Amino acid sequence: MLALRDAFFSVMFPDIATCIGCKRKALDITFPLCSDCHQQIEYYDPKLACIRCGRSYHGGKCPGPNIGHVMALAPYRGYWKEIINLYKFKNYRYLHKGFSKKISQVLKSNLKAEIDLITYVPVTDKGLKERGFDQSHLIAKHLSKEIKIPFAALLHKNDDRPPQRSLDRTERLKGWEGVLSLNQPDKLQQKHILIIDDIYTTGSTLYQCSKKLKAGGAKKITAFTLAN
Ligand SMILES: [Zn+2]
Ligand SMILES: [Zn+2]
């Protein structure tokens, strides 16, 4: 039955059933790498990671903002970067299942018991229109089913801002005024919230989201991103 399903998907989605590295058969239809190429992804060990930025522990002061606890699956490079880009920009939206499975595997041995509610960093309405789906929403919702922790769409992003890298810190902070609003504030009171995002770069988006959630009554924030 499984072989039949794989055969069906390889006809329907030829690119996804083969490894993006070497074109051999992929691990499964939600994860387009063979086991050899998969080994090249440098997954973090959460026990050896900086809790402020999610990268491998680096000593010294972390430049990341204080969000609470940040976790990431792997650095944004190599095959991992390629897979994320297929997902975000090439409309391979069924990859959300592979991503949420990986996140759930990490959470099952770290933190799962402490989390009350799962949410995500939303794209703007304009972004949603352009892409046709919200990448972090899909992952968060599937993850919720996978690890049986409730899901809620807690945040709404109101507009598009200029690229954050081009602004200095003060301008960046000012640029956030009125951008985020809270949905269903009654749901987050005193909760430990897990917030899903795709890529952590400066951490400023996650910082603003966590600030909003805390101001709305959340007890604690843990962020989980695909890459950083
Ligand atoms: Zn391969
Ligand atoms: Zn750090």
From TrEMBL:
Key words of the record: Glycosyltransferase, Transferase
Entry coiled-coil feature ranges: none
Listed InterPro entries: ComF/GntX_DNA_util-trans, PRTase-like, PRTase_dom
SUPFAM superfamilies: PRTase-like
CDD domains in the record: PRTases_typeI (cd06223)
Phosphoribosyltransferase domain location: 138-227
Keyword Membrane: no
Superkingdom as given in the UniProt entry: Bacteria
GO MF annotation terms: glycosyltransferase activity
UniProt key word Oxidoreductase: no
Family assignment from sequence similarity: Belongs to the ComF/GntX family.
Protein name according to UniProt: Phosphoribosyltransferase family protein
Species per Swiss-Prot/TrEMBL record: Proteinivorax hydrogeniformans
